[in-house]
Amino acid sequence: MKRPLEYNPDLIQKSEHLPLEKEKGSAKKWKTPNPKKESSETEGGPGLLIFGLFRFVKKYKGRISIIIGLLCFEIGFYASIPFSFKYLIDEALINRNQNALYWIGGYLAIGTITFAILGTVRDYLYNWASARIIQDLRLQMYEHLDRLNLDFFSNNKLGDILSRFFNDLAALEHALLAFIPWGLGPLLEAAFGTMLLFLLDWKLALIALLIWPITFLGPGFLSRKSTEISYTRKLEEAQVLSLVEESISAQNLIRAYDLSDYFFNRFKNNCEKLFQISLRLGLTNSYLERSAGSGILFLQGVLLLVGTIFAYHNTLSIGTLAAFLPPFLNLSYSLLYLSQYLPALNHASGSAKRILELLRAPVFESDPEEASIPELKEAIYFENVHFRYKGRSKNLSDITLTIPKGSYTAIVGGSGVGKSTFIKLLLGMVQPNEGKILFDGMNLNSLSRSSVRSLIGVVFQETFLFNTTIFENIRIGKPSATLEEVIEAAKKAEIHEMILSLPMGYETNAGDRGTKLSGGERQRIAIARAFLRNPQILLLDEATSSLDPVTEARIMKTLSLLREGRTVISVTHRLSTIREADQVFQMRNGKLERFSVPEPEQQAMVL
């Protein structure tokens, strides 16, 4: 009897929670972070949050200045109320001063109305600014992803990247929205309250000032601990999300091999790790709040006792004592609010660290003086091109090749010899470690990537369809295309009739990754994209390798129409697909060699 497959965490290599890969890349245009700047911004938890994200905040410095000004007015008015009580008791009531009563009453009435109006304005401005800052950060992250080295995506899990867009951004948004009511507001109230206490009675205020440092010992230590645990929790959340994403993507495999229990146990094990870390974080945050609260209660007790003694010995007036107590209690609550905000701030600091790791990953920097190439006039040249992925031996070595305009060039070879890497080099997705790629004598590195790619249409081995309509999936080839242009491209790709047979025609949803369509149908949509794009250069990357012979023969007939009048570069391991090529090269061990195409009866072989 076979032993059932079980998940054993001891047999699985433990995942190392490392920051995102920071590839230096091979070319000077790959921009890497400044180590000194990075270290200065990551030393403290809240400091990382403040300094690391400052560039997103300073964009709205005008509105934020207004917000802070309005907040200072609110707190200043609120802090002045105890003075009103002092004069109300000492002047209006004890001295029977009716004018003082009117003045104080009028001041409080007008101030309260103004307080309410300006507070509403400040709330609107702050919520607007907070939402804008998060949106700018989200857009910056998305834009940054599009410029990252491709190695980044192979070295980092999809779930970990997605976690930064959802979990980490949500934590930052929560901390940002709570910053005024739970952070800056209480901090300013504490500052105003301290000044007010010194104005009322400097002796009591001095006693409070001497005792305050004691109340911050516990929160100071636990805050750093909370930030560390919060960062670890974020890593575990990303791991769990990655497992969910993998399980959803691999449902066919999981069900075919009856692996449901195995993957459930694997997921359960990671959830248990997340539970343990969440428990540690929750307890640490509870201790943080409790230590701050206990310190504040101790401070309250000492000052109330000393204040009562001063009043008993007539060194403090009753009005001053009555005025001293409200701002003192308000100051205590402000410190309490700050202590309760610290866990959210530490949580956001861990998220900020992960987001900044993403934003510091090296990207391809466009040269403002780079040239554009409106059309290919002569040829594409590879001159002694060498390339290797990080940590591997050379994938391509000393590639020298001329691809004349209008020619059909085929590159054949087995799997893993570097054919797809050759396509990536042409598209500028990766850059040579040595040598040059020239378009009409102009170095690809000095050309605008956008202008080069505008000349190129690609049909990949794996056609990716978006979870939207078939119309939109075809229009990927030319986003500005009209319905008539899309239909014409579909007819050329011989997919129009099939689309019309669907319940909603071109408005039919293709499903996630095109799962509602067959492999041949997906490939024809990819060909329709290429027809719609009408490129000068056509790249075929194993365009028919995943199809059955009958479907492949039909697709090859359509591709022959697509090749007309274009510069075609086809990489494949099927010799039967390159009968009409003008020049054929075989890629072997990362090098190109001239290749003689066998007779037709031998072309069915696969390299």
Describe the model.
By secondary structure, this protein is an alpha/beta fold. The chain folds into two domains: 51-364, ABC transporter transmembrane region fold; 379-602, P-loop containing nucleotide triphosphate hydrolases (Rossmann fold, 3-Layer(aba) Sandwich), CATH 3.40.50. It is built from 20 helices and twelve strands. It has helices at residues 35-41, 45-52, 54-57, 61-93, 98-146, 150-155, 158-177, 179-200, 202-215, 217-249, 251-256, 260-312, 318-360, 419-427, 449-453, 470-474, 483-492, 496-500, 519-533, 549-563; strands at 30-31, 363-364, 379-387, 396-404, 408-412, 434-439, 442-443, 456-459, 537-541, 567-572, 583-588, 591-594. The strands form three sheets. It has a six-stranded mixed β-sheet with strand order 8-9-10-5-11-12. The protein has a four-stranded antiparallel β-sheet with strand order 4-3-6-7, with helices on one face. Helix 4 runs parallel beside helix 8 (179-200), helix 7 (158-177) runs antiparallel to helix 10 and helix 10 (217-249) packs antiparallel against helix 12 (260-312). The chain is elongated and about 110 Å long. The relative contact order is 0.09. This is ABC transporter permease. It is a multi-pass membrane protein.
